[in-house]
Amino acid sequence: MRVIINSGDMEKVQLKKLTRFLVAFCGLALIVVLFVPMWRIDLFAPQYPEGLQLLIYPHSLGGNVDIINGLNHYIGMKILHAGDFLEFTILPYIIVFFVLLLLITAISNNRKLFFSATFLFICFGIIAMIDFWRWEYNYGHDLNPDAAIKVPGMAYQPPLIGFKQLLNFGAYSQPHIGGWIFAVVGFILLVLAIREFVTVKRSRKLTKSAVVVATTCFILITSSCNSGPEPIVTGKDHCDFCGMTVSDDRYGAEVVTNKGKVFKFDDAHCILSFLTKDGFDKNSVKDIYFKDFSDNHSLIKTNQAFFLKSDLLHSPMGGNIAAFSSKGSLDKVKAEFDGTVTTWSEIYH
């Protein structure tokens, strides 16, 4: 049977059963978003090793709001009040609108309504992210000129997604349960829309290609949020244990957790103190890196590094441990700085 694509056919051709089921499932899943956090911003500093957390719900703020507001006061940031955000008033209604729209779409079995609902949902997601970035920008840049702490040219805008160093605080921003539900719902609707469009076109080749493209885009977007090792910038980055600015490019170190959080250190003493402090979960560590003492000072994994311990090294915090990517590089330095050749398992156990 030949299918002609026009607005009338879009309304008459029924959705696949799987599409109707998943659209209804997406509508019900959005109900959960009304009751859980959509986004989280985690702050870590030497004086707060357990971290501070700001939770953003569709209708309010949660977490350590009072403590964060107290800290923000010193740098001149506005106080965070849920009542100051129009978004907290209208967002619950928008979520309910999409719940009803998706359920009606599944019940009515209307392809044109389904395409419209998918388009509106994806547009809303893009607008919401732009609005969130604008909110962070305004709070991070519109500072009180009479604040107690002023750093010329410094802004305190948290990252939209990922990590950013703000003075001695490391800020991590990422979706919470509600945000991930929104992302998954958007992805499901996008794949279903492509699948339904391809069904109308009756092109099996196009079906496979479109689904592969959509899945590849989703994987790329997801993988881009996973943090690996980050460059340690001497003179700019701060040590996550002692709070001092990283001053020597030869001794830096870094911890990457299973959740993608990155902690930077200026010396072996600081990273060892961080890893062995009370309450630290060793199982949360994914990888540990050290700066290569020689060559280009790139980051190398501890299980691939050679270590030299010598009091003659005089590292910034007295750890006096240097890492090398090759045994030859270590031997050259050892000739000048006599010491003990060791391994990471002997240093940290």
Work out the radius of gyration: 26 Å
Strand content: 15-25%
Mean pLDDT: 84
Secondary structural class: alpha+beta
Question: Which sequence of strands runs across the widest sheet?
Answer: 3-2-1-5-4
Helix content: 40-55%
Which key terms come to mind for this protein?
349 residues, alpha+beta, four-stranded antiparallel sheet, 44% helix, disordered N terminus
Write a brief structural summary:
Helix content is 44%, strand content 17%.
What would you say this structure looks like, in words?
Residues 1-12 have low confidence and may be disordered. The strands form three sheets. A five-stranded antiparallel beta sheet has the order 3-2-1-5-4. It has a four-stranded antiparallel beta sheet with strand order 7-6-8-9. The protein has two domains: 7-224, no CATH class; 253-347, no CATH class. The longest helix is centred in the middle third of the chain and has 31 residues, at 111-141. The protein is built from ten helices and twelve strands. It is elongated. It starts with 6 loop residues before the first helix and ends with a helix. Strand 8 and strand 9 form a beta hairpin. Helices cover 44% and strands 17% of the residues. The chain is α+β, with helices and mostly antiparallel strands. It has helices spanning 7-12, 17-33, 65-75, 87-108, 111-141, 177-201, 204-224, 268-275, 327-334, 344-347, and strands spanning 39-45, 48-56, 61-63, 162-166, 169-175, 253-257, 262-265, 285-291, 299-301, 306-309, 321-324, 340-342.
